[in-house]
Design brief:
With about 210 residues, this protein is α/β, with parallel strands linked by helices. About 30% of the residues lie in helices and about 20% in strands. It has one domain: Spore Coat Polysaccharide Biosynthesis Protein SpsA, Chain A, CATH 3.90.550.10. It has six helices and nine strands; from the N terminus they run E-E-E-H-E-E-H-E-H-E-E-H-H-E-H.
């Protein structure tokens, strides 16, 4: 556990269907001899007070990583908001002292090492409860901070209103976006298609240990 205030749990979102990758688990594809998931864990773990994986189906395929695995509680692959709700529910039940969750896509191997600190600083400065990442002129709503205090509002939006759009829901409550430079490597590059794996190999070599 790191000395982070406020305590923040990291949620790795791997609940998608990976249609553009041809199915299977995108985070288990490899870059530079390690799975994408291993790269994400290496970068995010020092920033968080523990990690949690959101994935549907048999959790045993992630057993090597030693992380708690939670499935969506909302059926029919309701999207990233369902994974975030599952993470918030796990946090409320298992870490009652922690009030914050940071979510990242589990197929983003270059997550910045200052992600959590900068998101917290920005939401405090803006006096809003939510923060998300941005780069290259694009916001990345799935990569952000979520307070446990809003989990029942999120549950209502998902199960009663059938809301699926992250940015539409966060706009209701107040969200600030935090920009990271997209050069030399966009830290939020994600591997969606088979061709992206070759590009990820190139970017990994360009980034080195940064």
């Amino acid at each position: 556990m790191t000395d982070i205030s406020p305590a923040t749990l990291g949620l790795l979102l791997a609940g998608g269907l990976a249609r553009r990758m041809g199915g299977g688990d995108k985070p288990l594809r490899t870059i530079a001899g390690r799975t994408i998931l291993a790269h994400v864990i290496e970068r995010l773990s020092p920033q968080c007070d523990g990690l949690l994986l959101n994935a549907n189906g048999d959790p045993a395929r992630f057993a090597d990583y030693g992380l708690p695995v939670v499935a969506d509680s909302v059926p029919n692959f309701a999207g990233p908001l369902a994974g975030i709700l599952a993470g918030l529910d796990w946090l409320a039940a298992n870490r009652p002292g922690a009030q914050w969750l940071v979510s990242v896509a589990a197929d983003t191997p270059f997550i910045p090492r200052d992600l959590v600190a900068r998101l917290h600083d920005a939401r405090v400065a803006a006096n809003v409860p939510l923060a998300c990442a941005a780069s290259g002129g694009w916001t990345h709503p799935v990569i952000g901070l979520w307070p446990v205090a809003l989990r029942e509002e999120l549950r209502h939006a998902l199960t009663v209103e059938d809301e699926r759009k992250i940015d539409r829901w966060t706009a209701r409550h107040g969200v600030v976006s935090v920009e990271w430079p997209a050069v030399p490597v966009d830290p939020f590059f994600n591997a969606n298609r088979p061709d992206d794996l070759a590009e990820a190999e190139r970017l990994h070599a360009a980034l080195g240990d940064a």
